[in-house]
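User: Can you write out an input/output pair for a complex, sequences first and structure second?

Assistant: Here is one pair. Inputs:
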Amino acid sequence: MISMIQYSDITSLIHQTLSASLSPVATQITEIILSALLAFIVMIVCVIIMVYMERKVAGFMQMRLGPNRVGPFGTFQVFADVLKLLLKESFTPNSADKFMFNLAPCIVLMVTLMALAPISWGPGLVMWDSNIGILFITAITSLSVIGILMAGWSSNNKYSLLGAMRSGAQIVSYELSAGLAIVTAVILSGTISSVGMVESQADGWWILKGHIPAMIAFLTYVISSTAECNRAPFDLAEAESELTAGYHTEYSGMKFGIFYLNEYINMGVVSIVASTLFLGGWMPLHLPFNNEYIQLFNHLMDFIPSWIWLFGKMFMIIFFMMWFRWTLPRLRIDQLLKLEWKYLLPINICNLILATAISIFGWHL
Amino acid sequence: MSKDELKNYLGQHFSEFSLTESFDFTELHVPKENILDVLKQLKESPATAFDFLFCETAVDRNPALELVYHITSTQYRHDLVVKTVLEDRENPVIESVYPLWTAAELYEDEIYDMFGIRFSNHPKLRRIMLTDEWVGYPLRKDYQDDKMIVK
Amino acid sequence: MENIENLNNEQLMTEEFVINIGPQHPATHGVLRVEVTLDGETVKDILPHLGYIHRGIEKMSEHMGYKQSIYLTSRMDYLSAHINNHACSLLIEKACGIEVPERAKAIRLIMDELQRLTSHQLWWGSCAMDIGAVTPFFVGFRDRERILDLFEANTGNRLTMNYIVPGGVMRDVLPNFVSDVRDVIDEVKSNFKDYTKLITGNFIFRHRTQGVGYLTKESAISLGCTGPVARASGVQCDIRKLYPYDGYDKLDFKEITDPGCDSWARYFVRMEEMKQSIHIIEQLLENFPEGESRTKLKGVLRVPAGEYYQRVETARGELGVFMVSDGSTKPYRLKYRTPCFSNLGAVTAIGKGLKIADLMATMATIDLIVPDIDR
């Protein structure tokens, strides 16, 4: 990895400064807080870009311009929207269950942010280097359904309840496919740790090395995670023309802002996980052949910094998710669940068996 | 059937009721007690087969209220107007033709709303256009409303 | 707390609950309140509540002269404004025995068919939006704008035109009308392939509409449904073919019926009707007559006493105007038999037993315009 300053230099410098003046426990706690804040800030910046991107992409796909008044090319639109949401009154309906009503957005956001912990952001840059990182992500993201059900129930609104029930069924079903796709990647690489996963792609991304099972797993993972994020064509939990806004109908002001933020952070997390598992995370594109020209190509690829690779892949997957949203109509709840249980799940299971066979016999690159 | 054939048929089978001509259609005038039987016969007889009620409305002919049914046959493409007169202005009641044509449900709701004619055997007679607490029947000629109507 | 084994079946049953769809709702296309009783996702009962936009058009017409009451009809089904005005004008011409020049008839028919095109384009966009795809809405409106620009240039207005009057049309069209209409029609024809790519050929859309919202032929006739709703159930009821007016009998076009009876059939019938409208306009442009565009009438019209009925085919079905005249300058009773009023009965008949998402798809394809229902 050729770069001017290594991430490990910065992290060890910070560690030395802190441990010089604080006790080991305090150092640990400070480091945890600092790294969490940094990850949060990075995600917020990504969300700002994503919201702007969504509106511009939607505009261009619908033959119109999107925001172009507030700031040059409309870049300050997101800040204007956030300011508006902050200034709005966040009222609670009279007969709603106040405790759960106010707690639901926090749970949903908390769960999504916790999934950022084991992600490997660069060489030597990871908040929590555990050897079960990917399992942790799968487990944590499945808790978001609790927040959604709480939001729907405590709103005291039949539309919200309908939306929350639909969403609950949908998320619980699609977790299975997403989980199986993750397991396929894990079988191919042999490690559940996210750092280990990225480093196992040093000689080539899994989508190239693992050929058929990896490509199928990548596709099913992207489809399942679009459903997990409640994005179109699986967005009937918040189907605008049927239920007005589904489970977050009754939320206004910053509480709605938190749900909105959570949707984009969720998309970001899912894209980063997809790129970590199949597209190499922060690893540049290396081709797994021994030809000297290909080795030269691999060296050239190393010149592009790792953060460009990571965020480039993440935004590419996000662009695909936005593309789906603005092109396809919505699936009905029974068609959606049929897609999962009758088509995606059997395909995933067969794919898993195929990946296991390939891994045992060493038929991958 | 053509217009003349229809007139002959009606003259034969419904000779006790009078037939007149309006600009477009033949009109059959039926007293209110027989209206459901006559319409049922017109609908079910294979020679006429009037299966499509395309308009049902009321006209306020001071002092009586007149109910007008426009029916047509999708098979033969002949039209007929059936009229009946309700003398009692205070409490007009007549049988509903909902059992024959489901279209009558909404038409009769509107006639009740605007004219005050009650229909017996209607599944759910209610005011559909105006609010439930409205007093009076606007399309009657003696309806007074100094606020809403500009003369 | 009772032991759960002791609860019998009745106490463990799920309950039905009632929700209101509307009056403010993105899918009802107007202020319509539909009270739906749901058991889970399945609709058990539907009760529509109307009257939110009841303006008393029939009562108002009794206090206005004949020429003035025509302008109220543009506001009934505002997406078929020309056709509504046409119906009233034809009625008065029939009653008073007024002859309309050939050029006026051709202009009226072209305006009617263009209006039908714009109505179906808007319907297409909002139907796709109700099913979930948002982009076709913009595509439909973009195509519609070209025709509305044409309306604005020739009649002065985009939505409620008040252009077709008894005796002909209000004023003559612009000199390059024929070539303008030809350009617009060519553009609309070439945009049809967009419609197929985006929605008609879309797998998800077909699954949302095929087999959904079944309306049998007998139900359609009994409910008094007309227009594309009835034609998609196999009923032949195109007024332009059965009781032609103003020259429709000299034109060559097909009446589109489909025995499918489901939402997909209703969708398909309207798409084909758009193609037929284009065909009609092309024929009218071939032999566009010269001459007067309006027969001069007296200032205040007096219609001879009697009862008259006129039917036309709007974009949504049969519009019937029933007039009782007592010989004075104002109508004694003017009743509008609007197509959406009867088609609303179809929503109630189809709706029971559907899932709620299907109810939205069905209402989208039945194409209700609420001011038409409430008048």
